[in-house]
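As a warm-up, study this chain.
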Amino acid sequence: MSRLRLFRGPSDKYLIIINPMSRMGKGLRKALWTISRLVIRRMDFETVLTRTPGHAEEIVAGLDHHIDVIIAIGGGRHRPGDSQRPDEAAA
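Now compare it with the structure written out below.
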């Protein structure tokens, strides 16, 4: 498995957005591994599972509290700064 190096400030808050269906379940396994590392380090985090394409964007847009770090596990090929998701561009 890949290494995850976590450097944190005194009060960093993490949000983990997980696509449980990515890579036929491998994304969920990677998410569980990542969560275990956060627990071992006693880091402050919360997790959210996506349900539909674009759901991760809705989650981030709807945040009503401060998050220092967002970790997205699994999903499509949408990159930060893209104006449209690949499935919208084809339409």
